[in-house]
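REQUEST FORM: STRUCTURE PREDICTION
Request ID: SP-0412
Submitted by: Lab K.M.
Chain count: 1
Length (residues): 191
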Amino acid sequence: MKKTIRVEVSARHVHLTKHDLEVLFGEGYELKRDKDLSQPGQYASVEVVTLVGTKRNLENVRVLGPCRGNSQVEISRTDSFYLGSPAPLRLSGKIIGSGSIKLVGPKGEVELKEGLIVAKRHVHLNLTQAKDYGVSNGQNIKIEIDGPRSIVFSEVEVRIDENFDEAVHLDTDEANAAGFTGEEEARLIIK
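STATUS: Completed
RESULT:
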């Protein structure tokens, strides 16, 4: 069975706890919303931090809101090599035993002992969409993207939540491999 769904590219970004936000930006600081993201309640803020790796730094890395229960940094494999900081492939939120990284903001620094990951490609679906597609949370499916650099990605994990809206999330390395221009959709290949 094949279904078509929108593809979004997730560039490097940071999620912060309220505590870490205040260390980096000052006591009582609140994130300033820049633009809403496709998943309800999620947004890109105007705030940016610097990632300090063992080899190099990455500046102006966007902070996403709202604040979370654990701070984490999502980068591409290319970013990991550039920083010189190993980052395992994980779903967002699965940070136990992941990589370490230092974050620098205008008011302070935070050393994350874990939280640096390369985000696993995944598809967001709400309960109704998942039922329509006949998939379950945690299931791995394939997606196919047409174009001059047509590609099939396997091991795309299904993430289901009543508040999600359907979208495939790839990182910048994956999008570049597919020649992604921002107009493509993916076909879900469900067996």
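NOTES: The chain has four helices and 14 strands.
Reviewed by: T.R.
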